[in-house]
Amino acid sequence: MPHALIVGDDLITREIVSALCLADHFSIACAKGLREAQMQISRQHPDIAFVDLELPEGTGLDFFDAIGARNKTAIVLLAGEATVESAVEALRLGATDYLTKPVSFRRLQHLLMRVPRTCDPERALQLADRGARHSGHFGPMLGTAPAMQKLYHHIDCVAPTEATVLLLGESGTGKEIAAQTIHDLSRRRLQPFLPVNCGAISPQLIESEIFGHEKGSFTGADRQHKGYFERADGGTLFLDEITEMPPELQVKLLRVLETGGFMRIGSNQELATDVRIIAASNRDPEEAIADGRLRLDLYHRLNVFPLVIPPLRERGNDVESLARHFLDELNLAHGCVKVLSDDGLASLADYHWPGNVRELRNYVQRAFILSDHVLDAAALAPAITTQSPVGLALAIPVGTSLAEVDRKLIFATLQLCGGVKKRAADILGISLKTLYNRLEEYGPNDLPLRQERHRV
Ligand SMILES: Nc1ncnc2c1ncn2[C@@H]1O[C@H](COP(=O)(O)OP(=O)(O)O)[C@@H](O)[C@H]1O
Ligand SMILES: [Mg+2]
Fold it and tell me: For 288-315, what is each residue's pLDDT tens digit?
């Protein structure tokens, strides 16, 4: 588990940063000032430190001395508006980034995502335990459904190899957790695992983020910057939402994968890289190729070992065991003993989970907050019934033309599948080509696809 240190006496900022770190599975330590910070560092070296620029006994800039020169900690300065200049100074001194207060959740999450994670010994042991696997525990992954057992087996086979893995599955099915598990089972486990969400980086910055840049290579490039390939050296780079990477960059990525070398922007010196790639997408790759989002040549290069993560609605009783697991976690964290009622469990089992495990986790958390002791259908249902994009049944009045029924059914099925045309075609029992032809014939959909869900 990566470790975060939060330094400063601003209580609200400390609460927010620590809550987000905990949610992102970091262990945390807090220190009011530099002396306490030094004590904390001697106990456990942080992977990332959030340091307030205004400290009781000095400034955040003194933290660079406190932590010593040979550290690998990513230092993020927290600046009030008045101190932005010092934050710029901090970047010169080698801080990874700075955040102005009030802290933006999105930026903070983005920073946490970029912290390389290594596998801790406890997790490595859990993964090796075959007995646990049969009872539904494969490291951090839970589930006994046959499709999950098969997935564990495939992960087990591919992890120790150097093969590129392509993880496919709807959003929230567990692609990232699977990628981390592959890394943890590989010989690279003590080297960084670096997740990169290709859809979350601005298109202007993505090339420099991935390959790095030299000082002065473009306006604003005040210092040399190491990209993901350098930072993940020796480890695993997880390229999430690969179809969101701009096509020009896909060409460059393909070149790196083929030659094992890359160049920082503004340099013509080739650097060698030893990185295993795991890529993921929640789009059907064939559709993404047809839409021009994914280059065919890159797809062939990534598709060495494809792994499909099944949607939650195809995992039977796993819904119940996952719900119980998430509730156990919350009970432990909050010192509670809340329980799920039978009708609560039944309402979970009836739902089709378009947002998969992530959605289930959010619903359990929401019901946990709303319920004093028993999480029942009433606490879980409002979220489920109001968030369901379409019911599982379509009401078709007698007198409707067959063509209209056809149209309604196609759009409703598409919506149920989160817009994934291949899956919709499979359910409807027609070819993908026929589905495309019908969609063209019927014109734009009158039902909104992929409704944004409220998350707790
Ligand atoms: N099999 C699983 N067992 C336990 N937790 C899971 C499992 N699959 C997913 N999760 C949890 O669900 C959430 C979404 O998983 P994630 O890997 O981010 O999905 P994806 O990358 O496919 O969108 C995370 O909080 C993750 O820990
Ligand atoms: Mg993801």
Answer: 999 999 999 999 999 999 999 999 999 9
Predicted confidence (pLDDT) per residue in 124-162, tens digit: 666 667 667 777 888 889 999 999 999 999 998 899 888
Mean pLDDT in the chain? 84
Are the C-beta atoms of 63 and 75 separated by less than 8 Å? yes
Please state which CATH class domain 121-308 belongs to: alpha beta
Ligand 1: residues whose CB is within 6 Å?
141-143, 169, 171-177, 357-358, 361
Give the Å distance between the CA of 427 and the centre of ligand 2: 25
Cα atoms in the Cβ-side hemisphere of radius 13 Å centred on 220 = 3
Helices (H), 304-400: 318-334, 342-350, 356-370, 377-387
**CATH for 395-456?**
1.10.10.60
Measured in Å, residue 83 CA sits from the centre of ligand 2 at 35
pLDDT(383) > 80: no
* Gap from CA of 359 to ligand 1 centroid (Å): 10
Q: Return d(Cα 48, Cα 277) in angstroms, integer.
A: 24
Which residues are within 5 Å of ligand 2 (an ion), measured at CB? 176
**Structural domain boundaries in the chain:** 3-113, 121-308, 312-387, 395-456
**Per-residue confidence (pLDDT) for residue 401, from 0 to 100:** 81
Candidates 357, 362, 365: which one to mutate for ligand 1, based on the most atoms within 8 Å of Cβ? 357
Fold of 3-113: Rossmann fold (3.40.50)
Quick check: do 3-113 and 121-308 share a fold?
yes
SS3 214: coil
**What integer pLDDT is reported at residue 122 of this predicted model?**
65
| CATH top class, domain 312-387 | mainly alpha
